[in-house]
Design goal:
By secondary structure, this protein is an all-alpha fold. It has two helices and no strands. It is elongated, with a radius of gyration of 19 Å.
Amino acid sequence: MTEETIINIAQNALLTILTVSAPLLGISLVVGLAVSIFQATTQIQEQTMSFIPKIVSVILALAIFGTWMLRTLIDYTNSLYDSILQLIR
């Protein structure tokens, strides 16, 4: 196993992690920003008001993007297993 192979596997792993986590983080960021703007405008400083909408939005995003996320992780795992088999041969 060469250094180039290890670096390639690590790059693909990081890219897959970023790709899979991006929808959830993006939706959470947008909802958190909207709630923060609403709280600053109305001067309501309730802690649960910022927590509950983010949790609900992440759960909805998981329901929408969950199958795609799982398929992406399965594809990466299969390609990783294939590369391991090629290294053994």
